Amino acid sequence: MNNPVLVEITRGAVVESRHRGAVAVVDASGATVFSVGDVARPVFPRSAVKAFQALPLIESGAADRYNLSASELALAVASHSGEPRHADLAAGVLAKAGRDVNCLECGAHWPLNEEVARDLAASGAKPSALHNNCSGKHAAFVCLACHLGEDPAGYVQAEHRVQREVKAALESMTGTTLGDDMRGTDGCAIPTYAIPIAALAAGFARFGSGVGMDQDRVRAASRIRAAVAAQPWAVAGKDRLDTVLMELFGQRVFMKTGAEGVYCAALPELGLGIALKVDDGAKRAAECIMAALLGRYLELSDAEHAGLEPHVRQTQRNWNGADVGATRPAGALA
Amino acid sequence: MNNPVLVEITRGAVVESRHRGAVAVVDASGATVFSVGDVARPVFPRSAVKAFQALPLIESGAADRYNLSASELALAVASHSGEPRHADLAAGVLAKAGRDVNCLECGAHWPLNEEVARDLAASGAKPSALHNNCSGKHAAFVCLACHLGEDPAGYVQAEHRVQREVKAALESMTGTTLGDDMRGTDGCAIPTYAIPIAALAAGFARFGSGVGMDQDRVRAASRIRAAVAAQPWAVAGKDRLDTVLMELFGQRVFMKTGAEGVYCAALPELGLGIALKVDDGAKRAAECIMAALLGRYLELSDAEHAGLEPHVRQTQRNWNGADVGATRPAGALA
């Protein structure tokens, strides 16, 4: 099946590049509200399901035992930019479990935000695993392991109890069975399982509405949504779309980007879950599609419309700041 | 027309992302040797045609008048990484024409190479227009304007004599007429014209073989090819594909990347020209396709095969250095 073009990049009067993809919007009953492209195809959700991966942290009691704050819970579901406040927060989470950066198995990389990376370089420092965009999730995994009485060492391995708990949460939220044939290794070394786009959307409809989940999970999901809405800087960072739009919409939107053009969201007031994957993995296209979908489903105030619109139709500027083209929704999203 | 999938990104046993595109390989007689996808579609060649844009610099006598070295000619066709040696070289070109960085109209940006950018930040400096990846081309434009007795100011405008000379070279090399309806503004502020992929390939077959060009142009093209082969660091930079593969192949290959997934090349020994565009603009896919095409057409020594193969099938590694997947040619290129 050829997924349709959903985003165009224009330059002057010419369409310069095109992005194809698939989108599913599902309501709390599991019914499809909108679907385009092959939404039955399993895709790696990557970081877009960090909220599901954080459920065992809360449901096990680990978050309460270590007295994790809203910022720290938001960091647990973050793909953060590696700003100093993110790295410090991750270190603090580890300290609450009596651990430190040496426990992290995600690897080190320069902060995702290039300005932050240059500032770090200018300070004479090198990045550590605390700057890894997944350090909050990994610090949470360490907390979970410690709370469960497990040695954190090897917590990224599929057979470690932490990853078994995480996989069970993913299966339960998405109504899938995740076999080893659908398993890959994520950038931060943990397993990632390919899941149909429609099942991911159904999972986020549950996550936002609470429909079909037991009361412990309803409370855990609600706590995560409230934490991210209260501290949206912790889940991404300065100028990042997740942060900018959750600052704008508060608890009306829970949204989370993933690598390779995946995006998931929950719109609790409408009971809707959204999942999308851009075929080629482009972040710019995934962001454009998600912004267009938010504009399609949410009732917007003038201020919200003004805040959202620049992310739906993004002006392309050259190095002199001149307007040379646009990124815009196309086809079924135009 | 749906262009076919030409590159796949795998993770574990699953294809995670897919890139579509079109490729034309044309011989010196203008005959199509290989074609996949819609090669009649006009695409912005962006920086992939810098070699054509540099022809007036040589043909006008400007390169001789200002005594430009091989490195400086290579820089004139470069999309460089903004290393100190690139910025210094651009400043030297401007000085030869009695000008300086203030003449450049390309805008400033941090070096393309993130490590170079961090080093610059660590030194306490900010980037100037000399670090713009197009600074060599722009310095060459300033030389051309000065040599022609024109005020360089406004040399990026379509109606300036420099851009009229550049456009004439593009039309002549590609056998096209470039109307204003096909004009966009490039990242560095000069006009870019959409040109059919097949016409771009034909232009590079001419550029490499000399067939169908007058003697002045044959000499100018030969001089550019020799300059880049002698100083491949100047055309891109450390670890960049153009530099790495032209270091490997010398004058057997002239290749040049462009923004938004365009790549062009000439294989002089075979009289072939190559042009390709990835629909979604992804550099990783354009590089994979170009490497696959070089492997298909060139006769390779064992050392050349060993040097090329890691760019055809690229291993994807996570932050811990573990092999998690691959970028590989697909469909007609598999």
Describe the structure.
- Chain A has 334 residues and is α+β, with helices and mostly antiparallel strands.
- The first copy, chain A, has one domain (5-333): Beta-lactamase (3-Layer(aba) Sandwich).
- Chain A contains 14 helices and twelve strands.
- Chain A has helices at 50-53, 55-59, 62-65, 70-76, 84-96, 114-122, 135-147, 161-174, 197-209, 215-230, 232-235, 241-249, 283-297, 302-312; strands at residues 5-11, 14-26, 32-36, 42-43, 183-185, 191-193, 195-196, 254-258, 262-267, 272-278, 314-317, 323-329.
- In chain A, strands 1, 2, 3, 8, 9, 10, 11 and 12 form an eight-stranded antiparallel β-sheet that branches. A two-stranded antiparallel sheet of chain A has the order 4-7. Chain A has a two-stranded antiparallel sheet with strand order 5-6.
- In chain A, strand 1 and strand 2 form a beta hairpin.
- In chain A, helix 4 (70-76) packs across helix 10 (215-230), helix 5 (84-96) runs parallel beside helix 7 (135-147) and helix 13 (283-297) packs antiparallel against helix 14.
- The longest helix of chain A is centred in the middle third of the chain and has 16 residues, at 215-230.
- The first copy, chain A, is globular.
- The two termini of chain A are 21 Å apart.
- The model of chain A has no long low-confidence stretch (mean pLDDT 97).
- At the A-B interface, strand 2, strand 4, helix 6 and strand 5 of A face strand 2, strand 4, helix 6 and strand 5 of B.
- Chains A, B: InterPro entries: Asparaginase_II.
- Chains A, B: It comes from Alsobacter metallidurans.
- Chains A, B: This is Asparaginase.
